[in-house]
Amino acid sequence: LEKGIRRGQSVFTGEDSVTEERLSRGGPQAQVSDSLDLNAVLRVLHEVRNGDFTVRLPVSSTGLSGQVADSVNEIIAAIQAFERELARVGRAVGKGGSLNQRVNLGLDRKTWVGCADSVNGLIDDLVRSTTEMARVIDAVAEGDLSHTIVLETHGRPLEGRLLANATTVNTLVNQLCSLLSEIIRLADQVGSSAKPSEQVTVHASTGGVWKDLADSVNHMAGNLTRQVGDIAELATAAANGELSKQITIDQRNPTTEALLYQTLHDPLTGLPNRTLFNDRLNQALLYASRDSQPLTLLMIDVDELKDINDRFGHDLGDALLAAIAERLTGVLRVPDTVARMNGDEFAILPAGPTDLDGAAAVAWKVLHALEAAFVIDGHIIEARVSIGIALFPLHGADPRDLLRRADLAMREAKRSRSGFAVFAAIREKATAGRLALMGDLRHCIARDELVLHYQPKVDLARQEILGVEALVRWQHPIDGLLGPDLFVPLAERSGLIAGLTRWVLNEALQQLQMWREAGLDMTMAVNLSSRSLESFDIVDIVAELSETWGIPPDRLHLEITESGLINAAAPAVLQRLHEMGERLCIDDFGTGYSSLANLQRLPVDEVKIDKSFVIDLGSAEDNATIVRSTIDLGHNLGLTVCAEGVEDDVSKRMLIDYGCDVGQGFLISRARPAGDFLTWLAQSSWEPRQMSSI
Ligand code: C2E
Ligand code: CA
Ligand code: CA
């Protein structure tokens, strides 16, 4: 592979023209000969063996000699193609991380195909073991310790960094396993109170929830030890006839009961925790099925708690959760169970038989109770929640099924912003589909299934095309062409977004370079996920790919949504990109928290007014006012203003009147594949800029 890389590079730097010349049959080296010149064949083969794949046999147009020369030349050309291909893939793989390349030979020669196969096999192995690692880490995070990473694929052991990483993950899993069994063993012992003097040891490299767990078991064991000691002392005294002694109850030490309370309640809100909730649910299900009575379960999720945490800090987020808990308990009946399941999730188990109507009534009560804004630390905070409902026995008899289905319904409510939703089997299918997508998503780059569509951005007043925005789609083998809304959020949540962003940037810049070579001078806008602004990696990727494709920095526009600006690293990352000369654009402006004045502190070049304000510009007066003042303010701050979602002539005209610089929308063109884009361009009334015009 390395050899391929080295050779590939020399092939790429400048020898192409020579190659082309030698390749063309009528080129200066071609001679017409009637008999096969064996010496010539040997000479050429010798050259080939020395690594020069640019040589070719002179060919004659007819006869056996011509055929032989033809096929020798073809083989050499094939070797050359293979070398280039290896170099391309080798470079991509060598750069680290980019495992999305495939060796691709448009020919069927067995050897080369075999060779390509083995490179592809290697890439597959790498992809597989990386995926495997992600899978195991995900499982551990979920508390499932039954997986470790297999250290070989296809019978080949892992090597190098992959091996080191895999081994670390496995060691960690093993440590967690032994910690868990130690906790269980100790808890058993404490439970049977035989010898509660043992302590759980927490390995230094583990922490978080595991350490907390160990700590609380230790605490419990310590208390029991003291009490058993006291009892023993008393018993000894009593046996000696001394009956005046009493067990001293130390108020400073929580009793077992208090400890039990602690293990079953959430310290922040004082509500039952997941363990207690599950226990109550189990009990309730037993009664409900014995008495053939219906039962319901509500899952409540606080929308955008993360944003609130990011914006106001965790203390305030915690205070909000506690306040929400208080309102929840306030509106529910005393025997109902309301629990904090984790982070931003609550669950309600109404006491006694409840049917769908009953559950809906509870949901309405909750939504109503949370309508009024919270005032915390002088901040006015609106908490919205999404509620999912599942019914027993209709949606399942098993507590786990019910919980999962209430959770799915909750997600549906969140997606549709409907406040609450009842589980429907049909949706489970759709969600199962989404989960399957997540599995496929890990491979979509390697399988070459992503495509970019391009949508023009135009100078409205001058009727001129300024550039395009790259919008990613996934050509799914079964589900067809999927829009980014279906999989970009998935990619963000499953840590695959970095690979996706890199792919998009590479593809978009390569396309831009091709258009530039064809004489079109355009800008390329690429959407960055807010995740991308969490580290400086994006800076390196942009620099590397711009260099690879020879794109001047001001030709690349990076579109960032306001939510991307919330994380702490964003301003510094944007500053670096700005210093490199990239143009930065705030996307979907008007839908988030930021004000234009806030943006002033960031090195932003453009704001793009969200399509929701633009689409019905002609008919919605409010929107017209917002758009107009955003344009004015943007201009006052020295920003270029773009409006997306231009769907009709009226809006276009108004935007021009308001002085909006750039427009984008279905009126001009939908996003289309690169090929269609040129066809559209040829017959469109929008003028492209030519390279020569700069
Ligand atoms: P966006 O950046 O706001 O992209 C504009 C979306 O609006 C596109 O949808 C586009 O097809 C649509 N659109 C354009 N003109 C009109 C119009 O006149 N009317 C209406 N109703 N819609 C219009 P698309 O392609 O489905 O993209 C959806 C979102 O997915 C994008 O919103 C962007 O946030 C995200 N996205 C797309 N490509 C990428 C990508 O490569 N990386 C990341 N991180 N996100 C991407
Ligand atoms: Ca965009
Ligand atoms: Ca947008």
Structure commentary:
With 694 residues, the chain is an alpha/beta fold. The chain has 23 helices and 20 strands. The strands form 4 sheets. Strands 10-11-13-14-15-16-17-18 form an 8-stranded mixed barrel. α16 packs parallel to α17 (537-548). The longest helix is centred in the first third of the chain and has 32 residues, at 63-94. It is globular, with a radius of gyration of 33 Å. The protein starts with a helix and ends in a 6-residue tail after the last strand. Residues 455, 471-472, 483-485, 488, 504, 527, 529, 559, 587-588, 611, 615, 644-647, 664-666, 671 line the site of ligand C2E.
Considering the chains and any ligands shown, give keywords for the structure.
single chain, 694 residues, alpha/beta, eight-stranded mixed β-barrel, five-stranded mixed beta sheet, 20 strands, 52% helix, globular, disordered N terminus, binds ligand C2E, binds calcium ion
Distance between the termini: 42 Å
* Fraction of residues in helix: 40-55%
Major sheet description: 8 strands, mixed, barrel
| Total number of strands | 20
**Overall pLDDT:** 77
Segments where pLDDT lies below 50 for 5+ residues? 1-34, 203-209, 249-256
Structural class: alpha/beta
Walk across the major sheet and give the strand order. Answer: 10-11-13-14-15-16-17-18
How much of the residues is beta strand, in percent?
5-15%
